[in-house]
Q: What sequence folds into this?
């Protein structure tokens, strides 16, 4: 069912624990959906570029991640887990295929009915993905697509007592609104799992390999035009090497190509829409007036382009909110200890990385940093299907993060099956617990 004209009438038809053939066949059907995704790669690439402004490497990575989610959850189906019921899945525009698919695949694999609300900026990608899932054999009553905005469709879904749980990826402010709405309207046990944004940090100490650090700073800050929840927002460079690292960084920024995301030569494409572009440009203009802009590229015109820029701040707390675009804030720290203290001194805990060639420093960092994703000599971690991911503190809600072996438990309730067979009773060979699901 597509459309959001009558939200209640649509999702009242969503039914968990459907016909036995669906319960037995859902692993094969999810794998079939993965096959159809791969067969339609060109169509997905075109839609991701046109509707979401993604460059070709990002299109390939997003399709691969979406396919991985489908196959991963198909392999995780376990008869000892029971469906929760009707789950609302609200996905973001920055990963309109991968996260959209991951939320749905996990929910369906557990036997739930899914009410999928994509971001209002990317409904066509969601529509095409759902059409392929239905073509693969997912019953229409198990998967309802409800495009629309958060104020109407999203609010209706997250405040209806017939909903048994909500999966959300988006801003922290929206997650808090959803949480309050659920508390007021849904059953007390209805869970919320939310993967939200954060002010992700990176530390470069005096022992770091400069070429490696600069390469991964560029990738962490400016890939996808900085529109990732795991993007680097604040760089802490130890004073001993700051001049050298920043000089190399600015040179690497100058090599970035901005323009049409359909071209393979493009490194940085547009941001999602005019509103986002205006918001980011206003922030950079303020920094420019305060003489805090250290290095800035020139954006092409016309279009929703924002030039990659490096600005100077005193600490991560100078960022009142997450600037969701190609803006990198930099801080000079006298010592590693100072950098670590500054990186931890804020309310978010999504991802943090360090570049160092000192093993003791790396171990100390991993033990002391309080975030959901930690990187050592790698870019700010990018979520993959086989990793549980999500954040601590204001970067995540719920006891479990989305996806991965721990996250899958959110979509299910556990059943304990105990059996004893008297001697002489024929069970037709090895008892098939899978068939009991």
A:
């Amino acid at each position: 069912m597509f459309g959001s004209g009558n939200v209640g009438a649509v999702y009242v038809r969503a039914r968990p624990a459907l016909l036995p053939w669906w319960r037995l066949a859902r692993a094969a059907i999810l794998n079939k959906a993965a096959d159809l995704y791969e067969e339609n790669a060109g169509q997905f690439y075109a839609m991701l570029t046109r509707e979401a402004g993604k460059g070709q490497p990002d299109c390939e990575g997003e399709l691969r991640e979406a396919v991985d989610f489908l196959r991963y959850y198909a392999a995780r189906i376990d008869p000892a887990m029971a469906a929760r019921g009707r789950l609302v899945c609200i996905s973001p525009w920055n990963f309109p295929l991968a996260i959209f698919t991951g939320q749905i695949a996990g929910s369906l694999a557990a036997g739930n009915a899914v009410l999928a609300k994509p971001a209002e900026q990317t409904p066509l990608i969601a529509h095409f993905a759902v059409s392929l899932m239905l073509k693969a054999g997912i019953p229409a009553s198990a998967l309802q697509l409800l495009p629309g905005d958060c104020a109407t469709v999203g609010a209706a879904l997250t405040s209806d007592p017939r909903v048994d749980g909500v999966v959300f990826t988006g801003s922290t402010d929206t997650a808090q609104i959803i949480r309050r709405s659920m508390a007021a309207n849904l059953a007390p046990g209805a869970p919320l799992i939310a993967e939200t944004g954060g002010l992700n940090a990176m530390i470069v100490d005096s022992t770091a390999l400069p070429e490696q650090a600069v390469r991964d700073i560029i990738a962490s800050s400016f890939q996808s035009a900085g529109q990732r929840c795991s993007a680097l927002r604040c760089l802490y460079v130890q004073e001993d090497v700051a001049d050298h690292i920043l000089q190399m960084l600015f040179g690497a920024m100058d090599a970035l190509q901005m323009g049409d995301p359909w071209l393979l030569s493009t490194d940085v494409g547009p941001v999602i829409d005019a509103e986002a572009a205006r918001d980011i440009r206003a922030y950079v203009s303020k920094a420019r007036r305060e003489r805090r802009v250290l290095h800035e590229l020139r954006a092409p015109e016309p279009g929703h382009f924002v030039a990659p820029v490096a600005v100077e701040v005193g600490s991560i707390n100078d960022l009142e909110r997450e600037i969701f675009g190609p803006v990198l804030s930099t801080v000079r720290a006298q010592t590693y200890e100072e950098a670590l203290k500054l990186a931890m001194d804020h309310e978010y805990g999504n991802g943090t990385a360090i570049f160092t060639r000192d093993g003791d420093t790396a171990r100390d960092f991993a033990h002391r940093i309080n975030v959901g994703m930690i990187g050592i000599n790698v870019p700010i971690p990018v979520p993959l299907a086989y990793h549980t991911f999500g954040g601590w503190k204001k970067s995540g809600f719920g006891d479990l993060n989305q996806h991965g072996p721990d996250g899958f438990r959110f979509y299910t309730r556990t059943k304990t099956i105990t059996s004893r067979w008297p001697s002489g009773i024929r069970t037709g060979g090895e008892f098939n617990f899978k068939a009991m699901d």
Remarks:
- The chain has two domains: 7-196+395-414, 200-376.
- The domain at 7-196+395-414 is CATH 3.40.605.10 (Aldehyde Dehydrogenase; Chain A, domain 1).
- Residues 1-5, 428-437 have pLDDT under 50 and may be disordered.
